[in-house]
Write a structure and sequence with these properties.
Length: 475
């Protein structure tokens, strides 16, 4: 893949402000996947440099690198890091793009209101952000991104903000329901200024759409200044795209709990318990937020260049290729409750639709501790898996042959759907895997490498190689 040095230097200098470094970026459109950057756009912001997938074009299944603490991004004395090692694994999967999920954490008070931001230090302890930590994060991520583009990989970044107020998985709130102003400074830092944009954080985007529209425009302008041939429009720029990411359902969940929902759309008992115990704090945050504005949300959607979805909709046991469009269709239905026809906006404007998070966990507990008892449970809840230190006795796909068979069917159906260009009712343009814990079928994250399935990994690599070759011929 050819690289344009002038574009690369302009792009990375503005994105990371890392002096004395030289960067190269593949000659491809830049897609800025975000939910919350700061007006001071000199921090690390999520970016995806990805080829435009035209309607009907085959789609890659791209791996993701998880960066959840300083121990992942900080380089060793030999210049490598856990991040660059994960990039090396991802580069073997046949595609020409790679995604990052970078995670920081929020701190809330007893009323459920955000009071600060945390990160995991080199020892894995949650500590408040400071200037030194921000510098370390920017430098470490720039180093890892450079490593990827030297391998000819395009990059995508979808930052997350998780609950750092509790280490108990049962008490932990879900990021999708948290409501906060990304521009408000807490203890001297705004979330946007610390970590850049975010993914799968639907509620904050819905309550602060004007901020996200402004930030999308400012981020686009900052990145593209001085790059020849770049249109000034955020919405119709094929080289630089900014977008927003949502969960496939519960766009405005009344709590910050779990996404429990069975195949028929009924909320599970886990979600009900969370509503009883943990709904108050998030309601306080909503009370302090601006009122929901349909017009402002539509204006935001008319500004961005793509929309991302965490694609974990319930699926049938007898899965087929076209069942994989369920997450997008469910997402459109969720938005219709607000009186907004997102599907029409996507089609009319020709903006990209991304599956920004995707996989099958094989679990059945909202605390992500228990393997699914049967295939039906795993199919109903793809977002549930088994987290924590690997334990062969708790590996859903090692201990249950039927779950292992369903895992193979899941990826075979997905690859067939992506090869046919998605559809038939919905076309997506990108699909990024969730590579950690029992979802990590590629074994990308070091602590979940034992979950790697060699047969499925070979199929994904072969698929990606074929898609890259096919789409290069079309272009």
């Amino acid at each position: 893949m050819s690289c344009r040095t002038t574009v690369a230097e302009s792009f990375f200098d503005r994105l990371f402000r890392t002096p004395g470094s030289t960067h190269q970026v593949p000659s491809a459109p830049i897609v800025l996947s975000h939910s919350a950057p700061s007006p001071q756009l000199d921090t690390t912001h999520p970016v995806s440099i990805a080829r435009h997938s035209q309607s009907g074009a085959s789609i890659q299944m791209n791996p993701s690198v998880m960066v959840v603490g300083a121990y992942d991004w900080q380089p060793e004395t030999d210049g490598t890091s856990r991040c660059t090692q994960m990039v090396d694994k991802a580069a073997m999967m046949g595609g020409d793009r790679i995604n990052w999920f970078t995670t920081h954490y929020w701190l809330s008070n007893s009323d459920g209101l955000l009071i600060g931001y945390l990160y995991k230090d080199i020892n894995g302890d949650l500590v408040p952000f400071n200037d030194q930590a921000i510098t370390s994060f920017r430098s470490g991520m720039a180093h890892c991104f450079q490593h990827a583009v030297r391998k000819g990989l395009s990059i995508s970044i979808v930052p997350h903000l998780d609950d750092g107020s509790s280490t108990d998985l049962i008490e932990t709130k879900w990021r999708n329901g948290i409501v906060f102003d990304p521009l408000q400074k807490l203890n001297g830092y705004s979330y946007a200024g610390l970590a850049g944009p975010s993914g799968e954080m639907s509620a904050t985007v819905l309550y602060y759409p004007r901020a996200y529209e402004l930030l999308a425009r400012e981020l686009h302008g900052t990145i593209t200044t001085g790059i020849p041939g770049t249109p000034t429009s955020v919405a119709y720029d094929d080289r630089v795209k900014t977008g927003v990411s949502f969960n496939f359902n519960k766009l405005d969940a009344p709590d910050a709990a779990t996404p429990d929902q069975d195949q028929n759309g009924a909320f599970g008992i886990g979600s009900f318990i969370f509503r009883l115990l943990y709904g108050v704090g998030n309601k306080n945050a909503r009370a302090a937020a601006p009122s929901l504005s349909k017009d402002s949300i539509v204006n935001l959607l008319n500004t961005v260049g793509f929309v991302g979805i965490s694609a974990y909709h319930s699926l049938p046991v007898d899965i087929t290729a076209n069942d994989m469009q369920a997450s997008a269709l469910g997402f459109f239905q969720e938005f219709s409750a607000f009186g907004i026809d997102v599907q029409s906006i996507v089609i009319k404007r020709g903006i990209e639709l991304h599956y920004s998070e995707f996989g099958l966990g094989g679990g059945s507990s909202f605390a992500n501790k228990v393997p699914a008892a049967n295939v039906q449970a795993a199919a109903n809840n793809p977002w549930e898996g088994v987290s924590g230190a690997y334990n062969a006795a708790a590996d859903p796909f090692l201990t249950n042959p039927r779950l292992a068979a369903y895992q193979r069917q899941f990826y075979q159906a997905t690859l067939a759907w992506l090869m046919q260009g998605s559809g038939p009712q919905v076309r997506i343009h990108a699909c990024f895997m969730w590579n950690v814990d029992s979802w990590d079928v590629l074994g990308i994250y070091p602590e979940s490498s034992a979950y790697r399935n060699e047969g499925i990994a070979r199929q994904i690599a072969a698929h990606n190689l074929a898609v890259v070759s096919r789409n290069q011929v079309k272009h």
